[in-house]
Design a protein that fits this description.
The chain is mainly α and about 325 residues long. Helix content is about 55%, strand content about 10%. The protein has two domains: about 210 residues, HUPs (Rossmann fold, 3-Layer(aba) Sandwich), CATH 3.40.50; about 100 residues, Tyrosyl-Transfer RNA Synthetase (Orthogonal Bundle), CATH 1.10.240.10. The protein is built from 13 helices and seven strands. The protein binds tryptophanyl-5'AMP.
Length: about 325
């Protein structure tokens, strides 16, 4: 059976980008013919400084976000990465398979390190090899992520292929990134050429999953648009990044295509479209944030779910790590 793996870092709150680019699609992938494994990647979060008390809280809050969005712990394996030590163990082996030159090509590292590449953690540099370990520890065949993670999933394929080739085995699968639909690249609400991220300077740039209805409405009303009304066709969105982003968000939230949204609103002014988008977002997101808050009232229950999830994850991961050690020739006596 095909197996799906994906994860989100518990660093800062969940954004609409994480929801549309990842979680919303994961929910739709839970089915009887797919095994689904969803992780809170806390070991990835600490590649940049995280306050210890906040990290625990952020991990629980992220778990609440998965659950509130419809990840069902009966159908999916749900856990935080650090409770399954096999991730770090396999990552070390992949550090010895991946090449320094491959890491040097990672655009996310270059963006995050900026001019300060000498001062960032070694973990940030090795980040993609831990991500490959996350995926391949479960022999995952499908990885649903937003557009920004495509290069990392491609590197995972390179690591799997080099491992198989170096050791003359056919062991790790060549994973497919699943990147489809209008929500794969949700942009900053103040600048349609930048991606919406947890870490952007102004809160007005992003929708947080825990924003209340008034805040969501205000952010969409103040979102940057342009002077033209909505075009007659999607081709009319070319060269209009802010307009395209708002149409894409509407499409993704309503499970429609951008074409369908344009058909409904062609020629409309922003003064009409933005309030409609805000209403749609509030309708879709408030039940999730209400449920997140409710779940966070009982952190012990979240912890129990994650402990159970980690146990199930290890049942899949342990034999795969054992076999990997054996292939590599690491003695276990
Ligand atoms: P992270 O925590 O940055 O983001 C989590 C997921 O949200 C997606 N995403 C977006 N999608 C559309 N528009 C946006 N503006 C936007 N911002 C974020 C990301 O593409 C991602 O799917 N390295 C990963 C976490 C990770 C992982 C893995 C993912 C670690 N191991 C194994 C898949 C498989 C990351 O930093 O995601």
């Amino acid at each position: 059976t095909p197996r799906v793996f994906s994860g989100i870092k518990p660093s800062g709150g969940l954004t609409l980008g994480n929801y549309l680019g990842a979680i919303k699609r994961w929910v739709g992938m839970q089915s009887d013919d797919m095994e689904t494994v969803f992780c809170m990647v806390d070991l990835h979060a600490i590649t940049v400084w995280q306050d210890p008390a906040e990290l625990k809280n952020a991990t629980r809050e992220l778990a609440a976000g998965y659950l509130a969005s419809g990840i069902d712990p009966e159908k999916s394996v749900l856990f935080n990465q650090s409770q399954v030590p096999e991730h770090a163990q396999l990552a070390w082996i992949f550090n010895c398979v991946a090449r320094v030159g491959w890491m040097n090509r990672m655009t996310q590292f270059k963006d995050k390190a900026g001019k300060n590449a000498e001062k960032v953690s070694l973990g940030l540099y090795a980040y993609p090899s831990l991500m490959a370990a996350d995926i391949l520890l479960y022999h995952a065949t499908h990885v649903p992520v937003g557009e920004d993670q495509k290069q990392h999933v491609e590197l995972t394929r390179d690591i799997a292929a080099k491992f198989n080739n170096d050791y003359k085995v056919d062991f790790f699968p060549i994973t497919e990134p699943v990147i489809e639909g209008p929500g794969m690249r949700v942009m900053n609400l103040r600048d349609g050429t930048k991606k919406m991220s947890k870490s952007g300077v102004s809160d007005m740039e992003r929708i947080n999953m825990l924003d209340d209805a008034d805040t969501i409405a205000k952010k969409f009303k103040k979102a940057k648009s342009d002077a033209e009304p909505l075009p007659e066709t999607v081709e009319g969105l070319v060269g209009r990044p802010e307009a395209k982003n708002l149409v894409d968000i509407y499409a993704s939230l309503s499970d429609a295509t951008p074409q369908q949204v344009i058909a409904e609103y062609s020629g409309a002014q922003w003064g009409k479209f933005k309030p409609a988008l805000a209403d749609l977002a509030v309708t879709k997101l408030s039940p999730i944030s209400d449920e997140m808050k409710r779940l966070m009232d009982d952190p012990a229950e979240i912890d129990r779910k994650l402990a159970r999830g980690a146990q199930r994850a290890r049942e899949i991961a342990t034999p795969i790590l054992d076999r990997t050690y054996d292939i590599v020739g690491l003695l276990r006596s």
